[in-house]
Amino acid sequence: MTPALSQPTLAEHALVRECLKAHGFEPTGRSRFRNGRATLHFEGTRLVAIPGDGSRIWRSEVGAVPPEAIVALLDASLATPPFLSQQEIDRRLARTHAAKIALDQIVELIREAPNAAPSVELRRFLWSLFNGHHLLNLWRLRHTLDRQQSAWATEVFTAWMHGHVSDELLRRALSDSGEVEQANAIHASADREKRHSEAGTP
Question: Which residues contact 10 (CB under 8 A, 6 or more apart)?
Fold first, then answer.
């Protein structure tokens, strides 16, 4: 009689190991993994994740959970700040810093010549990232900006797409460029005209 082949443990499952490796976790034992900050290990069918920032330890019973679902759970959890490796934290900080420098250059350009064609497109670009209420023609943006201005917009957009540019950074850029003040003035003027119009209505 052929003996039954033993099934791989969760820690040995190829999908789980590939997922952990993608998040920077390397094996430090048969069922233990570490990315330099956070630690993750399996206690039988229990998954234990120890965050790198000293916050609450996460435990989950995953014995009856398919490996694909475990991978989805790990992808969502290990992408959060407490479980990021220092290398990933440094990479995100560097991307945010580069985007901030590019934003500063865009702000300076808008302040110097707010009605010039590149500034007009970049103003729409910033507002579109900030609240999505401003229509942006990407073809016109590309063909209006020069190489350096395109590089600034690309840096900001790429970082924003990856979640490395906060609303606060965009709000500050819009404020420093004078866009918020101008928008408030336009709204105030529209409100005054509306009140005058209503006051003159029989």
Answer: 16, 31, 42, 45, 47, 62, 67, 70
